[in-house]
Amino acid sequence: MPKLISQKAMNTVVSHLDGVRDAVHDEAKGIEHAADANLNAVRGTTKWQKIYGPGHLTSVSSSRGEVDSFANLHAPNPMAIEFGHSPSGVFGPGGRYGHIKTKAPEGLYILHKAAGFGLE
Fold first, then answer.
1. DSSP label at 56?
2. What pLDDT does 45 receive?
3. pLDDT (tens place) for every residue of the chain, 120 residues total
4. DSSP assignment of 75-104, as one string?
């Protein structure tokens, strides 16, 4: 009877097969290109004022690790762009304009949508 190996061990075997790293990186590059299109679609529109200024302040890239590859969102606060956030700073509690009711900015889900997670 053949001996079965664990899922973790199988993942290690598969991730080191010829061509797998390149295929994973190609997928990350595809997500990068789709995320760049998503970002450019919302940049500077009146609906999404938080994406503004020179392109180098908010951008996407892909990077490669030993086995995995990643699509990355670069910005002064990428988590706020991706997931949204409550008003803070001068508009937050105790801030200069904290007395003004502001709506929490919604997340744009730039990477999530590019990866096909279907948050529409």
1. G
2. 64
3. 788 899 999 999 999 999 999 999 999 999 999 999 999 888 766 555 555 555 567 889 999 998 899 999 998 888 888 988 776 666 667 777 767 777 777 888 999 999 999 765
4. SSSHHHHHHB----GGGSTTSTTTTS--PP
Residue 90 CA to its chain's centroid (Å): 26
**Domain assignments of the chain as residue spans, ordered by start:** 7-114
CA distances from 68 to 16, 19, 20 (A): 11, 13, 10
**Amino acid at position 44, single letter:** G
What residues are paired with 103 via a beta bridge? none
d(CA 76, CA 59): 10
Q: In whole angstroms, what is the distance from residue 33 CA to residue 119 CA?
A: 18
* Angular region, 42: left φ>0, alpha ψ -120 to 50, beta rest: alpha
Distance CA 93, CA 81 (A): 20
| Cα gap 3→5, rounded to integer Å | 7
